[in-house]
Design brief:
With about 90 residues, the chain is an alpha+beta fold. It has helices at about 15-25, 25-40, and strands at about 65-70, 80.
């Protein structure tokens, strides 16, 4: 019967033999570095879309300038300038 202290926890997956070899030996570290370098050079850069979420309910609507941008077509953007009435003359 094995000692339960020597067994790895059941939650963690066991590393593969390749991972053990690349971490334990100097040659493995060099080969891993070369593979990562080749991957960086040969693999095209990933273009991930940047998502910006804005809560429209929290916007103040009484600002003097309101800018509505159209990200797909910049010519469709809109700028609304609100002019306050002049103060009453007393």
């Amino acid at each position: 019967m094995q000692d339960p202290d020597l067994d790895p926890p059941a939650d963690e997956p066991l590393p593969s033999r390749v991972v053990k070899w690349s971490r334990r030996s100097a040659l493995g570290a060099v080969m891993t570095g070369m593979a990562l370098g080749l991957q960086e050079v040969l693999e095209p850069p990933r273009e991930t879309a940047i998502v910006v979420e804005v809560d429209a309910d929290g916007e103040p609507h009484d600002l003097p300038i309101r800018l509505l941008l159209d990200p797909d077509d910049p010519s469709g953007s809109l700028c609304i300038v609100r002019r306050d009435p002049p103060p009453p003359v007393v």
